[in-house]
Design goal:
This protein has 11 helices and 17 strands. It is α+β, with helices and mostly antiparallel strands and 318 residues long. The longest helix is centred in the N-terminal third of the chain and has 29 residues.
Length: 318
């Protein structure tokens, strides 16, 4: 075999190798068509916003729904740290992220036709959310109202808040805002625990109950333990019940049994209460806890040492 013949053979081999890749892709497309067309990670299958499921409060009031190619948040900033946001450019947050697979459109077997995503009903009670926001005394901080018999969070305030519908327009502003309006303070905000760290054992807390959308574990910093309002609420719930702390609506009821010891809570005319000022370097926060079974309020007020005002606000929200 002369040189020219060998060169022709090499050319044919090289051509066949080049054809292997497209032939393999065609085979995959034919054999795996259904899986590829319905896989939610297929970037070509952008979700149709119009098919995204609705988000409701416990009474069925709309918190988020789709109109055409837009996601609508009819309650504005009031439940913003519950609903979070949905944006093609900025992603998803809050409940929109937590239950994204539930809410997103459901594709049929052919990957072309779709059905609306499922509805999501949260434990949020909008009237109680409004009441808690009205009495909340601070521009920065967090508060929780929990039904201990159901283990459900009825209201959660995080200040400052944001407008979910403006995620595209205000994203850069929020990212550079030192007050961190996107931070879900009730469950992700960490504050010096003060006397609570000496009275309660926080090592028993789990990383995050599956029924909560967000959670940050307690953190030791410079001799202080940093905790969130959600962890305080979880501890008190678990002291008298086996229910998990939840942000999902459920009809299940299991009466909360008050333990014999609630230190450092003190008995008062309404029930039990406790407040303190905690400091870590330049950070000063006021804690207030009001317990009138089955309702519990946990409040933390940033940049403040006004215990009485915080405690009054906590009681007003029950």
């Amino acid at each position: 075999m002369n040189f020219d013949d060998r060169l022709v053979r090499v050319k044919w081999v090289f051509l066949l190798l080049l054809l292997v890749v497209p032939l393999r892709l065609v085979a995959l497309q034919l054999g795996w068509r259904q899986q590829l067309n319905t896989d939610p990670h297929n970037s070509r299958l952008l979700e149709k916003v119009a098919f995204r499921g609705r988000v409701l409060d416990r009474h069925g009031q709309l918190l988020a729904y789709s109109r055409g190619n837009h996601r609508i948040y009819p309650q504005g900033s009031l439940p913003s740290h519950w609903t979070g946001f949905y944006s093609v450019d900025r992603g998803v947050g809050g409940a929109e992220r937590w239950k994204n697979e539930l809410l997103r459109e459901r594709r049929e077997e052919n990957g072309v036709t779709s059905r609306p995503g499922h509805e999501l009903r949260l434990s949020l009670d909008l009237p109680r959310q409004r009441s808690l926001e009205r009495v909340f005394p601070a521009e920065q901080g967090a508060a929780l109202l929990v039904d201990l018999d159901r283990g459900q969070v009825l209201a959660a305030i995080s200040k400052p808040d944001f407008q979910p519908a403006r995620v595209g327009a205000d994203w850069r502003t929020w990212q550079h805002d030192e007050r961190a309006p996107l931070l879900n303070r009730p469950f992700l905000g960490l504050y010096p625990a003060g006397p609570l760290a000496r009275a309660w054992s926080w090592k028993q807390l789990p990383r995050r109950p599956v029924s909560l959308m967000d959670w940050t574990s307690p953190q030791p910093v410079k001799g202080q333990l940093l905790i969130s309002p959600g962890q305080v609420a979880y501890y008190l719930l678990k002291s008298g019940s086996e229910l998990p702390l939840s942000q999902l609506f459920s009809e299940h009821v299991q009466p909360w049994r008050r333990p014999p010891e609630l230190a450092p809570l003190q008995k008062c005319a309404q029930g039990w209460q406790w407040s303190c000022v905690a400091r870590l370097e330049q950070q000063v926060v006021t804690w207030a806890v009001a317990l009138k079974p089955p309702y519990l309020v946990v409040l933390v007020w940033e940049n403040s040492d006004q215990e009485k005002a915080a405690l009054r606000a906590a009681w007003k929200s029950i």
